[in-house]
Specification:
The complex is a heterodimer of chains A (about 190) and B (about 270). By secondary structure, chain A is mainly alpha-helical. Chain A contains ten helices and no strands. Chain B has an eight-stranded antiparallel beta sheet, with helices on one face.
Chain lengths: ~190, ~270
Amino acid sequence: MQPNPAQVSDVDLLHAIARRDEQALASLYDRYRLILFGLTMRILNSREEAEDVLQEVLLQVWRRASDFDEQRGKPFTWLVTLARSRAIDRLRVLGARQRLAESAAAEASDEISDAALDAYNSERRAIVSSALSELPDEQRRTLTLAYFDGLTQSEIAEKLDTPLGTVKTRMRTGMSKLRALLGKQLDNLH
Amino acid sequence: MAHDDYKQMLAAQSLGALDESEARTLEVHLASCEECRLEIGDWEETAAFLALDAEPLQPSPELRARILSSISTPMFERLRWDSEAAKVIEMPTVASRPASHWQAWAAIAASVLFVVSAIGLALMWRQNNENRKEIALLTNQSEQINRELNEQRDALTILTGPGARMTALAGTKMAPTAHATLAYDQTGRAILMTKDLPPAPTGKAYQLWFIAGGQPLPGKVFHTDRSGTGTLKDQIPDHALNAVFAITLEPEAGVEKPTGEIYLKSGS
């Protein structure tokens, strides 16, 4: 499945942003806000922190769009990697995830799960979700602890009381399987 | 470490899951290995798809406006509104052509309105500038606090790590009141905190050394702030955990062998 062909491509949006086109930034935000906010919320568990980080990410995109090199990666990867890395940095500064979890518990009931993802992104999500469900639990857990909780392999080994070598193997095998499962679909997904 | 060992680390690096020393070793390898650089791009792409495992959520409607107003160039800056621009507007004088009383009053009223508006706009422009300065100042302060928090967190991680040790460094005749502490764990992760070091002259910086078996091994370079406080994270080489630690003043880019005076040194 391809993005709507009538839509300006992500690469063109980033080029326009590099030329200081504010409307292009607004379009990029509209296109990815649900995914990026979902991501920063999953990492930070707090609306306030997650929105703050999302604002920082868009500001960084505004300032650094000219650094984006389409030869080295896709805009989706660039954007998501930026958001994930900013959110993990914030998580580390804040220190205690538990502290946030407490304050978020009260907010959780107010969360609006938005089903209004466009068809293209809904399709991508379904493919990723199906691929992840095919991984053994312990491999999936290793990947999500690293990606969403920002834990290193040593920290995961300690948390799960598992030898470090086992964690390394699970992570490598899990990522290899995920890459293979997404396989050819990756190209069509973008 | 062999090329294949580095390849085994790429998937973990794309998830940000390598320990700091491993990540740093891999970065050095990536700088010189195109094959691994290309491969890590693939892993990063796979890792980015994990973001879609998070439930999509709607941020508050105000966030969009907040983002756009933070990037938007202030209107008055775009118009380059300044007193010079105001001077080029020539007001027609009432006496330049015959005019009735009401026309004259209307012209005066319009002039007064123009002047009042101009003053209002100038005041808003000034206020806007002050706000921007204030925001820049607060952003700087916030970044500084974040940096300090990160440094303290790093120090704590090392001090609570396995086999944590602390070594004091005393000032030499070059800086008799200076002192420093080097905290490190058995993996060699180290953090150095200095006090009362004089600021390094332009083009110079302080460099950490690990002296093992009489041979100085180079560490990283660092600067101090105005109060002589400096912090440096470094990795002690494997066989230098029991080394003597010293700090010299060197060219800013750092050197392979010490050339400058020793400012701080641990006991042998």
